[in-house]
Amino acid sequence: MRLSNGMRAGVAVMWLVATGAAAAGCSTTTDGAARCPGCGPGGEPSFPTSKPTVSTPTTPATPTPTNVPTPGSGQTLAPSDTGYVYIETKSGQTRCQINAQTVGCESDFTNPPVVNGEPANGVEVTASGSVRWIAGNLGDIPTTPLDYAIYHAVGWTIDASPDGTRFTNDGTSHGMFISTESVKVF
To answer: Region (Disordered) spans which residues (predicted)?
Structure first.
């Protein structure tokens, strides 16, 4: 079949239109504005950057002269999915991670022992009362700031006071009292 000049021109136009439509479908840009429900003014999602907080106990705790916390008193701190509770003392000078077996704290201690040629900045106590000094860093853990009060976390009682923080294992009564000036294991 022979096409006339007019038919050839019509076929050419149809081919150009089809080619242009196909090319437009392969474009790497799309006109319009991005929409992100719940996003901030710049169109970007916002993520919390602050540390999680916990409400303080409803009744202020009065420091007791005894070294043994009262069972059943105080707020319970919930563990993470991995079984840890992360706390920070009211002064901000000590951070700790607590699980059912151990309490490990990091601080700038006065006259700490030397571990692997470095001054220790961490100490760990087990539920059985064993202690280990560490030179290391807890990293960017999501701590809960404590007030001067009594708390409970994964089998430990935490008695936070202006003098330091006492961790007592509820099952064994072993633990430690920690401050930047000293660590006492019991």
So the answer is: 43-77
Q: Is residue 40 part of a domain?
A: no
The answer to whether residue 143 is domain-embedded is: yes
Instruction: Reduce the secondary structure of the chain to three states and give it as a string.
Output: CCCCHHHHHHHHHHHHHHHHHHHHHCCCCCCCCCCCCCCCCCCCCCCCCCCCCCCCCCCCCCCCCCCCCCCCCCEECCCCCCCCEEEECCCCCEEEEECCCEEEEEECCCCCCEECCEECCEEEEECCCCEEEECCCCCCCCCEECCCCEEEECCEEEEEECCEEEEEECCCCCEEEECCCCEEEC
Dist CA 67 CA 53 (whole Å): 27
Q: Examine residue 19 and state whether it is found in any structural domain, yes or no.
A: no
List the domain range (segments joined by +) for residue 167. 75-185
Q: Is the separation of the CB atoms in 154 and 76 below 8 Å?
A: no
Residue ranges for the chain with pLDDT beneath 70 = 1-73
Q: Which two tokens stand for residue 20?
A: 């242009």
pLDDT for position 89: 95
Strand-pair category, 150-153 with 144-145: unpaired
Which amino acid would we find at residue 147? Answer: D
Give per-residue pLDDT as tens, 155-173. 999 999 999 999 999 999 9
- What would the pLDDT profile of 120-156 be if each residue is shown by its tens digit? 999 999 999 999 999 988 888 899 999 999 999 999 9
